[in-house]
Amino acid sequence: MFVPTLMNLADEEQQARWLQPALNYDILGTYAQTELTHGSNVRGMHTTAMYDPDLFEEGGWHIHTPSLEAVKWWPGGLGKSCNCCILMARVIIKGKDYGPHPFFFQVRDWETHASLPGIELRDIGSKLGYNGMDNGAMRITHVNIPRRNLLMKFVIVEKDGTYRKVGDDKMLFGTMTYTRLKISSGAGFNLAKAVTSTVRYSAVRRQFQMQRVVLGADIDNHLDDDEKDALAAQDQLKNLVKPSKRTEAQVLDYSSQQFIIFPQLALAFAMHFAGQEAEKLYNAALLEFKASKFDALTEMHVLTSTLKAVSTVLMADGMEQCRKCMGGHGFLNAAGVGPQYLSALPQATYEGDFVVLSIQVGQQLLNAVSSKMMKGKTSNRRRLRSSTSTSTIRPSVSCLPRRPSWTPCFRITTSSWRR
Ligand SMILES: Cc1cc2nc3c(=O)[nH]c(=O)nc-3n(C[C@H](O)[C@H](O)[C@H](O)COP(=O)(O)OP(=O)(O)OC[C@H]3O[C@@H](n4cnc5c(N)ncnc54)[C@H](O)[C@@H]3O)c2cc1C
């Protein structure tokens, strides 16, 4: 999130200062948004950035954690490794609250790696998995930073405190769209790793003798010529098909095993290609954003949120199925799937909880459907107004705007209504 945020939200001069050092790993950054008491509800965060035109030469920000609840909690790498971050904090200018905005924020000394004055950092401790990542916590006590540390591609704050938007302010959270896309593609890859281990294991693991039907075992001794010919043919067949020295069957040959593994195999491919297609749509939309056209912003939010919510949940379920398909050995860390599964689990939570994202997608789809239905049609408007619940509206795919990504999102979301 650190580098994509600099790419998407920093202006050219800011990118020249921070992006290249970040790409060279000369500085190590993270993304500090979540607070102890506010994760999904980003707009509810409490960390403040008060503008003061008298700070530094060009004005500056006074950053503060106002309460224990506002301590930044979870940022990956903040516990020990990072020396800077994108800090999300509420911009307050002359008493007016403009909501959360991204800042470049140094947290440790570039040379000694010691925490800077006014900044307390800690590792939040051991987790179920994903322990290679030192997720951290940060409390900030009255720290001042220059005005130009606010990322200013889509929002500009002048020295006198004038606040100006450039483009759509939803772009402030646009980086999450990209990260969700990456998580969706990664989910397919994680599942593919688990499926690979499980298929290979099932091919070498043998349990039980396969039941073989012995033809002609209970036929009568009185045979006519044709029947004798048939028996002779059967003897020949026995000579041709010698019994295997291994008497037990590969577990992969059991249809019950295939019933569990093969859908996961297909799903891994489906998720991979869905991710690739979504990335093409995203890149096309990005060109529009660069040309200051933001029509596709909502669509991208819907597409990436749907994919992220669905694929991370399917991935986790699928990986667990794979683990079980390896029997007792699947429970060993050495089998690989268990640790990978535990580390992949939080993907359903970070960068947008899967339930919260699904609800947002549902709301957007209903908005799209109702605005299409209401377009100039008073009868539809009356019908919608008289509806007491959303279940009385019968939306169909044809109600949606003609955008390629809406249809799958619609199908995924409405299928959960049907259940
Ligand atoms: C491993 C890991 C790494 C992380 N890395 C980072 C990081 O680098 N930087 C960072 O800033 N954050 C990070 N996070 C934090 C992460 O983004 C948040 O945990 C996530 O946004 C969910 O917020 P929350 O924990 O406050 O959960 P909550 O929002 O409190 O959710 C708790 C429950 O309430 C439900 N819920 C919440 N709101 C609604 C609603 N409106 N309707 C229905 N149900 C609702 C949720 O579905 C969930 O079941 C990380 C988290 C994890 C687990």
TrEMBL record:
Biased composition range(s): Basic residues: 376-385
Chief localisation class: other
Subcellular localization: Peroxisome
Acyl-coenzyme A oxidase N-terminal domain: residues covered: 1-27
Pfam hit, one: Acyl-CoA_ox_N
Location of the region described as Disordered in the Swiss-Prot/TrEMBL record: 376-397
Keywords from the named record: FAD, Fatty acid metabolism, Flavoprotein, Lipid metabolism, Oxidoreductase, Peroxisome
InterPro entries referenced in this protein's UniProt entry, alphabetically: ACOX_C_alpha1, Acyl-CoA_ox_N, Acyl-CoA_Oxase/DH_mid-dom_sf, Acyl-CoA_oxidase, AcylCo_DH-like_C, AcylCoA_DH/ox_N_sf, AcylCoA_DH/oxidase_NM_dom_sf
Acyl-CoA oxidase C-alpha1 domain mapped to chain residues: 173-366
MF (Gene Ontology): acyl-CoA oxidase activity; FAD binding; fatty acid binding
Biological processes, Gene Ontology terms: fatty acid beta-oxidation using acyl-CoA oxidase; lipid homeostasis
Residue stretches of biased makeup (Low complexity): 386-397
Family: Belongs to the acyl-CoA oxidase family.
Classification via PANTHER family: ELECTRON TRANSPORT OXIDOREDUCTASE (PTHR10909), PEROXISOMAL ACYL-COENZYME A OXIDASE 1 (PTHR10909:SF250)
Name of the protein: Acyl-coenzyme A oxidase
Species for this entry: Polarella glacialis
